[in-house]
Structures are given as structure tokens and as C-alpha cells.
Amino acid sequence: MSGTISVDHLHVSYHGKEVIHDVSFSFDEGKLIGILGPNGAGKSTLMKAVLGLIPRDTGKVMVSGRPLEQVRTNISYVPQRSNIDWDFPIKVKDTVLLGTYPKLGVLRRPKRADKKWALECLEKVGMADFANSQIGELSGGQQQRVFIARALAQKADYFFLDEPFVGIDVASEEVIINILKNLRDAGKVIFVVHHDLTKVEEYFDDLILINKELYGAGPVENVFQTDLMQKAYQTPSMLMGNLGVSV
Amino acid sequence: MEFVQDLLTYEFLQKAFVTSIVVGIICGVIGSFIVLRGMALMGDAISHAVLPGVAISYMLGINYFYGAVATGILTALGIGVISQNSRVKTDSSIGLVFSAAFAVGIILITLAQSATDLTQILFGNVLSVRTSDMWLTIIVGGIVLLAVILFYKELLVSSFDETMAAAYGLKTRLIHYGIMLLLTLVTVASLQTVGVILVVSMLITPASTAYLLTNRLSSMLVLAAFFGAFSSVIGLYFSFLYNLPSGPVIAIATTVLFLLAFIFSPKQGVLWRILKVNKQRTAVSKEVS
Questions:
Q1: Does the N terminus or the C terminus of chain A have fewer Cβ atoms within 10 A?
Q2: CATH number 2.140.10.10 given to B2-288
Q3: Residue of A76, A86, A88 to mutate, interface with B, max B Cβ within 10 Å
Q4: H or E stretch covering A20
Q5: Positions of chain B with pLDDT lower than 70, given as ranges
Q6: Per-residue pLDDT, A7
Q7: Domain that residue A209 falls in
Q8: Could you tell me if residue A47 is inside a domain?
């Protein structure tokens, strides 16, 4: 079981320029949450600041009543595909095994049971046949599925995915969203940085809409509204209709 | 096989032999992490930056090891401070700091009129390895290998996906500076064998050769260690027989091994790639005609 996650008055600046201004939100367990906003709105920055990967100016992040820093092993992060060196000498099965490291701690090695668990996770994303391939030999969608398997292997309660659907095939996207929905049904909290507005209502329960500051946080039906979207995207309502936002 | 005979006869040659092998192994191992983390230039920087440390140690009459380690670490920190606190990019701050350190080093050595010959520090002279140097190298080798074996898991995950590692609570900054410290130790241990200028060839080339031949980090470390050790023994052999400085010979040996892998590697080799492309083209042109 997980619990609520809350972010309180978060400010982030980069070289003295504010990029996140006073963002607060709170979500209960069992939620699949999309982080939306135009290009350069600070979606990835928000995610990294929440995780403490970049310094916050101010702001507290609490996870079931404890500071996030104390429950890190319970947090699974999937980076943007472009941040990974796909030529790294590592096989698919060993990539998934990395997911077991957080709970093992320093000095302890993965045991046979961990390796078996990693293979099971690989099966869940339909990639078991590629266990012995080098990760660079896979397609973009397959690589992303392997990273989802790694996140599963961690047995975490909180998931943070940075643009997981960028540059991947339709079949992989379907596999991944189904897995995320299953996690949600099991009571996990999942944050997804996302920019394709066409599938928002299909994919997410809740939304965080930002463009430097917060424009909305809560259930999709409350946030995915023309007026809010228009303000955040600073785009005429005409275009919003085309993107599938209910007018 | 006169060389083997001499090796069994002369004690100085035995010391040189042991030192060469240890240096080759640890350069290959640490070099693999340097290559995978995209820090090749950092390796070059640290190796040049130990020079002022060597000079200062000589002036103070202490073992050159202490001074070299101190200036090596200061350089790593200095590069970090400049690149994180200004818009100057990492590669430029590396170039900036190490050329300054190297310049200071050369002037200090000249002023000190060191008995340790400048050319020897710059280009290596494996045949002049003393017993104390040999033991120093063996101890450094032990520390490096132990650290890599104990923290293999952490080194692997932080080299491959640093953000994920930081997200689950690994101290990635600490790991970065830990690697810098090991790199400095390895560089100092390699001074006698390859010399300041060419240490980088021992760090980068055997690791890059191994990188072309395998898809597993553990096999890459073993292969890089083997190529490193093999190259430095070759260096010792030519240095002894033809009275050449050992550093350049070692650097050439590592490069020859790299070229062989570059051309013949089963997965990455240029040769197979050309053959494959030609085969494909012939197949396609047959289909068309």
C-alpha cells in the first residue's frame, strides 16, 4: 500500500531565473496522473525537483507523511529515452535487474530469486525473448518496455515517468499504458510527463497543468477545460478544439 | 626467448615486469568507467595535474605520491567548481584547469632542478622502478580492484543511468568523486611506467578496444585489464631491448590492439560491416535484375 503524496509551495530557479513558481498539489493513492503543459513549461523540471534531483529554492515534498528523501528506495523513475546511452555494454535482462538494486542496498548482490523476478517483469512487458540482446539492438518502443520492466522490478509504490510515450510504436504504447493502469488499480501513484493532448482523457485520472506556475491540479474533467488549457498554453480556443479538449 | 632468461636473472627487470602488469590491469579497469561515463578528457586532465604535486613533494622531501594525489584531487574539484558555477562548459573548464596545473608543474620542476628527471616523469621509464615504487603500485592496485569489486553494482547503475540511481537515493556525486580519487591513484601509480603525458592512452585505448568486443560491463573490465597488461609488457620488452622510453612504446601497443579490434571485431568491426553491406547490395541488385 502507498499513501498520499503532497507538494507544498515548490519554487525552482535555474541560474537565478525562476522556472517553477509556487506549485502545490496533493494526490491520493491509486491515481494515474498526467503532467501537462506546453514545450518549455517546466514539466520535466517539476518532476526532477519533486524528486530532489535538482535543488529546490523552497518547497516540501511529503510521501505518506514522511519527507520524500526518506523513502527514496520506494520511488521508481524512468528517464527520457534521449538521456540514455544506448550503446552502453549491458544486456536487456541485466538492465531489468538494475530495478532490484534499490531494495538490495549497497554491497549486496542480486540473488537467483532477484534474477528470476527480473525475468518475470520482462515477461509482463512482452520482452522475454530479448533477454540476452544488447539494449542498443532494440527499437525505441522495445527499449521503453524494458525500462518499464525495470521500474516494475523495483516493487515501488511511486512511479515517475518522463515522456514515456515519445518516439515509440503504437503496440508498445498500449502495453505500457495497460501496465500503468494495472499499477494504478493496485493502489500505486504514477506521475507521467506527457505532451500528446489527444489521449489525455483515455489515459489519466488526474492532471497537473503547468506553465512555470500551476494552472490546475485535480481530476481530468476539472482540469482538461478549454479556459484553463487556453491560459496554460496561451493558444486560441480554436486550436484547443482540434487537440481534443472539450470546448 | 632471451627476454625470459633476462627476466629470471635480473631483479630490476622483475620489478619492472610486476609493476607493468599491475599498472596495465588497473588502468584498463578504471579506464573502462572513464570511457563509459564520457570522461576521457578528465583522465587526461588528472594525469597532467599531478605534475606540480610531484615537484612540490620533491621540494619538501616527501614521497611524490602524496603531492601528486593532493594536486590530482584539487584539480578534479576545481574543474567541478568552474563548470557548475559558470556558463563555461565541462570540456573547456577541464582544458583550462589542467593546462594551468601542468604549466605550474613544469616551472616548479625546473626551479627545483629535480633529480627526478623531467623526461622520466613525462614519458616514463619502467626500468628504473624501485622496490618501493613496485609496492606502492601493488597497494594502489589492491585498493582499486577492491573498490570496483565491492561497489560494482553502484558503479554499473550510476554509469548507465545516473538519474535513476540518484532518484532511488544513491549518492551519485560521491561516486563521481570516488572515481576521480581512484583515477588519481591509478595515474600516480602509472607515472614510472607510462609517464604523465601518455597515461591517458593506457586509460582510454585498452578500454575502448574492449568496448568494441563485448556487450557486458564485467567482460569489458576483464578484457580492458588484459589489453592494458599485455601492452605494458610489450612496452617493457622494447624498452629493455632497444633502450626506448617505455611510455610511447606502450601507447603504440595499445593503439595497434585497438586498430585490430576496430577492423576485425565481430560485432562492431569495420571489415564485417563492409562485407555485410556488399552482400546486401549484391542480393538487392540480383533481385532487381
A1: N
A2: no
A3: A88
A4: strand A17-27
A5: 1, 114-117, 289
A6: 94
A7: 5-242
A8: yes
Distance from CA of A171 to the nearest CA of B (A): 25
Task: Say what the pLDDT of residue B61 is.
Answer: 84
When CB atoms are compared, the residue of B159, B163, B220 closest to A79 is B163
- Across residues A14-33, what is the average pLDDT? 91
Percent of chain A clearing pLDDT 70 (strictly above): 94
The tens digit of pLDDT for each residue in A27-72 reads 999 999 999 998 888 999 999 999 999 999 999 999 988 999 999 9
Which residues of chain B make contact with A72, given a CB cutoff of 8 A?
167-169
Chain B nearest-CA residue for A150: B164
Mean pLDDT of A161-190: 94
Measure in Å the smallest separation between the Cα of B167 and chain A Cα atoms: 6
Number of structural domains found in chain A: 1
Q: Do A84 and B215 touch (CB under 8 A)?
A: no
Contacts of A78 in chain B (CB under 8 A): 164
Do B169 and A154 lie within an 8 Å CB cutoff?
Answer: no
**Interval A226-237 mean pLDDT:** 80
A189 within domain boundaries: yes
A66-87 pLDDT per residue, tens:
999 999 999 999 999 988 999 9
Residue with C-alpha cell 503543459? A37
User: What is the band of A247 on the pLDDT scale with cuts at 50, 70, 90?
Assistant: very low
Classify residue A222: in a domain, yes or no: yes
CB < 8 Å to B156, chain A:
90, 98
Which chain B positions have a beta carbon within 8 Å of A53's beta carbon? 163, 166-167
